[in-house]
Design goal:
Shape: globular
CATH topology of the largest domain: Rossmann fold
Order of helices and strands: EEHHHHEHEHEHEHEEH
Radius of gyration: 17 Å
EC number: 3.8.1.2
Organism: Paramagnetospirillum magneticum (strain ATCC 700264 / AMB-1)
Keywords: Hydrolase
Number of domains: 2
Strand content: 5-15%
InterPro entries: 2-HAD, HAD-like_sf, HAD-SF_hydro_IA, HAD_sf, PGP-like_dom2, S-2-haloacid_dehalogenase
Protein name: (S)-2-haloacid dehalogenase
Largest sheet: 6 strands, parallel
Helix content: 40-55%
CATH superfamily of the largest domain: HAD superfamily/HAD-like
Length: 225
């Protein structure tokens, strides 16, 4: 399936370009099977906190939310290890890229698409991750929800990309591995591609995708390359 013509491609970061499974693998040696349980609890709580209405005067800070979510998950599992907590938080600063990500981005650049990351991640988190080889030379802009003090799926966050590129939403392909993000981006008006790496059933959300792919390697063909 191909999309209507687009002029730019915008990517979510975590779970789309960056493999959060690398955090699990980094502590599996010491936690064994509990590593997967911890990661599931942590990620679930992180997203739940980001979806809550912000208190008056409080601006979005994904690093703080991530740390609070990890504290919750570790407490729930009876883990009291400051060193473990620090290592897991530092993992967000240097996550692994999905294996096909660098080549897919390079192909899109060769096709002439400007590329951006649009993420809930704070700017320090994203800038650190962008030092990874294979990504720093292929991304034109890093757009953080922190700059508008809100988290996705708030429309103000999605608007960052259209403002940056000076384009209408329908001129942008938005790519995410997170179904809730897919719905929010579609509601804003983007042409959305869902990366369904685990081949899970669609979540029957009100608004969805123009296309679904198994990984980023399939994206250039959908965009005409």
């Amino acid at each position: 399936m191909t999309l209507a013509p687009v002029r730019a491609c915008v990517f979510d970061a975590y779970g789309t370009l960056f493999d959060l499974g690398s955090l699990t693998r980094s502590v599996r040696g010491e936690l064994g099977e509990r590593a997967e349980t911890l990661m599931r609890l942590w990620r679930k709580r992180q997203l739940e906190l980001s979806w809550l209405p912000l208190r008056p005067g409080v601006r979005a800070d994904f690093w703080r939310v991530t740390d609070e979510a990890l504290e919750f998950a570790m407490d729930k599992m009876g883990l009291d290890d400051r060193g473990l907590r620090l290592r897991l938080m530092e993992g967000w600063l240097s996550p692994e890229l999905y294996p096909e990500a660098a080549e897919a981005l390079a192909r899109l650049r060769r096709l002439g698409f400007p590329l951006a990351i649009l993420s809930n991640g704070s700017l320090p988190m994203l800038k650190s991750a962008l030092e990874l080889p294979g990504i720093r030379d292929n991304i034109d802009a890093v757009l953080s929800a922190q700059s508008v003090g809100r988290f996705k799926p708030d429309p103000l966050v999605y608007q960052l990309a259209t403002t940056h590129f000076g384009m209408a939403p329908e001129s942008v392909c938005f790519v995410s591995g997170n179904a809730w993000d897919v719905s929010g981006a579609a509601a804003y008006g983007y042409q959305v591609v869902w990366i369904n790496r685990d081949n899970v059933p669609a979540e029957k959300l009100p608004l969805g995708t123009r296309a679904t792919v198994a990984n980023l390697a399939e994206l250039p063909a959908i965009l005409g390359g």
